[in-house]
């Protein structure tokens, strides 16, 4: 279970992580660039769970970035079957995340 939004930005990944931290995540820091969590794609993440979710930012300024929010591996979680109206929840969250990202001038949200 997870959701994500892709976007373009001229900022490099660490700079973008600092901006997103400030604007959306209450100052929680992104880190882990040297851990290569997505092998060949640069990625950083917020180590602490946020309401049981993990936040990952991956990509690069030449192509695009994706902000992914999914279940944190160390937190107990419900199965998708246990969530009523899962599709509504996911779509609504995607739209909310897109809306928030569109408020940041340095980000150009990609429409599918």
Mean pLDDT: 86
Tally of extended strands?
6
- Strand order, main sheet: write it out: 2-3-4-5-1-6
**H and E order:** EHEEEEHE
* Strand content range: 25-35%
Rg from alpha-carbon coordinates: 14 Å
Poorly predicted runs are none
What is the share of helical residues?
Answer: 25-40%
Number of domains: 1
Question: Can you describe what's shown?
Answer:
- This protein is an alpha+beta fold and 112 residues long.
- The chain has one domain.
- It contains 2 helices and 6 strands.
- A 6-stranded antiparallel beta sheet has the order 2-3-4-5-1-6.
- Strand 4 (53-59) and strand 5 form a beta hairpin.
- The longest helix has 17 residues, at 86-102.
- The chain is globular and about 35 Å long.
- 18% of the residues are buried.
Question: How is this fold's topology laid out?
Answer:
Layout: E1 2-8, H1 13-24, E2 30-31, E3 43-50, E4 53-59, E5 65-71, H2 86-102, E6 108-109
Antiparallel strand pairs: 1-5, 1-6, 2-3, 3-4, 4-5
Short description:
This protein has 112 residues and is α+β, with helices and mostly antiparallel strands. 26% of the residues lie in helices and 29% in strands.
């Amino acid at each position: 279970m997870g959701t994500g939004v892709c976007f373009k930005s001229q900022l490099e990944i660490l700079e973008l992580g600092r901006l997103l931290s400030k604007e959306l995540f209450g100052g929680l820091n992104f880190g882990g660039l040297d851990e290569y969590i997505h092998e060949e794609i640069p990625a950083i993440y917020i180590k602490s769970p946020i309401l049981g979710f993990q936040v990952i930012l991956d990509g690069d300024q030449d192509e695009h970035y994706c902000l992914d929010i999914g279940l944190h591996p160390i937190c107990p979680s419900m199965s998708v079957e246990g969530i009523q109206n899962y599709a509504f929840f996911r779509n609504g969250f995607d739209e909310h995340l897109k809306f928030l990202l569109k408020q940041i001038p340095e980000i150009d949200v990609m429409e599918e």
